[in-house]
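#onboarding

Welcome to the new folks! Below is a worked example of what a typical request in this channel looks like: someone posts a single protein sequence, and someone else replies with the predicted structure as tokens. Don't worry about understanding the tokens yet, we'll cover that in week two.

Example request:
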Amino acid sequence: MFQVNNVYQLDHVLFRILKIYPQYLVWMDIQSNKALPELIPISELKQHVISGQAQLAHDPFSDLCLLSVDTGSIYQIKRDQNFAIIKRIIEHERFYDPKERAYLIEQVVQQKIATKQTIYRLLRCYWQRGMTPNALIPQYYNSGGKGIKKTVTEKKLGRPRVISVGTGALIDKSVEKLFKKVINQYLLNDKKISIKYAYRKFLILYQEEYPDIPKTEYPSFWQFKYFYERDFSRTFRLKKRSPQIQYLKDNRPLLSTTNSQVSGPGSRYQIDATIADIYLISDSDRSCIIGRPTVYFMIDEFSRMVTGMYVGLENPSYVTSMQVLRVAMCDKVKYCQSFGREIRSEDWPCIGLPEAILADRGELLGHQIEHLEKSFALRIENAPAYRGDLKGIIERYFRTIQADFKPYAPGVVQPIKEKKRGGKDYRLDATLTIHEFTKIILNSVLMHNQTHEIRSYDRDIDMPTDLPNIPLHLWNWGIQNRTGKLRTASERAIYIALLPRTEATLSHLGLKVFGVYYICKEILENGWMHRSTSIQRPQKLTIAYDPANAEKIYVFFSQPNSEYWEAQLAQRSREFIGCSFWEVWKVKKEQKSSQANYHTSLQIARAELERSNEEIIQKALESTRQSTRSNADRLSTIKENRIKARDQEREVLKESVPTCKSNQERPSNIVSFSKGKAHTDDQDQYDRPAFFDQLFDDD
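Example response:
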């Protein structure tokens, strides 16, 4: 029941069992500095345990056995010397007997090895602290009162001055108050002010508070720094002196990993974009430099598999991210074929909708993505601003993917932009087109998915040891052995759900979107394009559009129903046949700019017209005399006056017609349209043209 070295608590006193005999045991109070070993019957201790007066307690010196001292250190030398002094005493069979113990101690004293007080002190240390050699290690680490604030006396603390003049300042509570005021104002913020600058501000404040004290007795910089480091911990100073976003992103402790938050493939995708560090040229004109492309990636958190990608010239936006989502959720075979790569579905098996998508604020934040969320129960998670650390997987992959082409690709961005004398601008080295660069990125993505080993991958306990840390293998293992989060959906449904949406206005001209008109048979059947005030039509309809194709839109006529109509480009907007919406927006912007520039000239011309008309009217008013005739008489002669004026106009026109001066100038031959006359193949047909009903869309 009882064991040597067990600690029991009896009447709030801790006792350590030193030795056990058949009827008795030896124990000792481990808290008193005058305690010595005592004998106690085992039956008595059992009775105390049964009654609850004594119980097994925690050993306060249990950590001493874990101490490791360096060979040759002062701790090791002192420990071994102390153990040699008391070795004969602690190994004696009757060490608990006061007479036998006193005799053994007297022999050691006579050998002049140590004094009696030292021997008793070492014996108590050995028995009270666990009966191990480490119990005799000197407690030098408690010397000096590290971390304990020193009591201020009339004498300056610390070493005295040797070189500097004066004795130094005594740091009392009033000086500490000034220290704390300056530190709170200048150092405990994210302005990155140096401690020396703050100390200079303290000197000005101290001089104002104590003008009579000589400058030689001012608190020193080291006293100021000591107070700053003593009263404010490193963690507290780091948190206060770092901007909150920087602290959360770069300095905060990482208590978890990405893999601990996902259960399998498709649990969460990460999406992000970057501007590639390379300049490209145009596909149509290789002498034309088009700048740096945008690269989008979507990565599965569990397997690190790249599930979707986009390389192009569009800026990061919702419209561009939708193209990445479309690639990520559909079969990749056709996509790779468009860039000359033949793969099987098993080589890139990421097909379907994930459970959640983690993105930056912007691309997937707003009402546009709500249609995808509601239609497929897809959860969208947006990281806070400037928190790239929350998407560490994809942020790290951007650096990895660019390291694959930077060493040998021409036109790579250099760290120094200034052109040296005789040097060449690296932008002029651009050689790759957007199509060729996409093929390079696609090759790197396929290599990453199929062969790249993730050495820092944190594995779960159920993963087999022979499972390689390669994205494709991790994906396949997760699909077979973990909870499947991917959900299937038709490509058409995904395509429509991913399209950006907006509102279109409806009038008798059709649906108007971005200044372009569309019509469909359903709108005609509902009579919404009839030009009558009795027709009741909705003023606005929600539509979805593909930015790459301006010839077709999808009309959602009944909310929240997901049914839609396909509307085609109207003849009124035929100028945009074969265009994309990016081209539509560009043309409309140029047209608005042109109209805005012409507006001022138009207003000036209209002002000139109005001024000229006003002058004519004013002259007419001045020339018109007051008539002596009555109003009735003037009104009754309007018809006669009109006939006279018409005859005069005819005479003027007759005189203005030129006459023939010679026989050579003859009037043109007049061809008569004979209605009933037959025509031959050689004879031109001069019948009047027929107007077809189709020309006016008549019913």
